[in-house]
Design brief:
single chain; 92 residues; alpha+beta; 4 strands; 43% helix
């Protein structure tokens, strides 16, 4: 899978995770950054891949990668936006 990948869950009951996922999608769309959304709740393999890329067996969504290269979690994404280094963070 090439390009920006956002690992998320459509069945999370955690409001913070839902808000984080929405913020990531809104920012990427507003900046016209193409991305692929991967719903880890639909596939155990996708959840394992997300955790392998993040090198964290307990990682929760949202997690962001560029292909198989890990970019970071929501906090790192948010900081990249604040510091205006989003393209560098996303490895574009």
């Amino acid at each position: 899978m090439a390009g920006v990948v956002v690992y998320m869950s459509t069945v999370s009951s955690n409001m913070a995770i839902k808000q984080q996922q929405t913020k990531i999608k809104n920012i990427l769309e507003s900046k016209k950054v193409p991305y692929t959304e991967v719903d880890i709740s639909a596939s155990e393999d996708d959840k394992k891949k997300m955790r392998a890329i993040a090198e964290n067996e307990t990682a929760l969504p949202p997690q962001i990668a560029n292909g198989d290269s890990y970019c970071g979690n929501f906090e790192a994404f948010d900081e990249a936006v604040e510091c205006e280094v989003l393209e560098k963070f996303l490895k574009l």
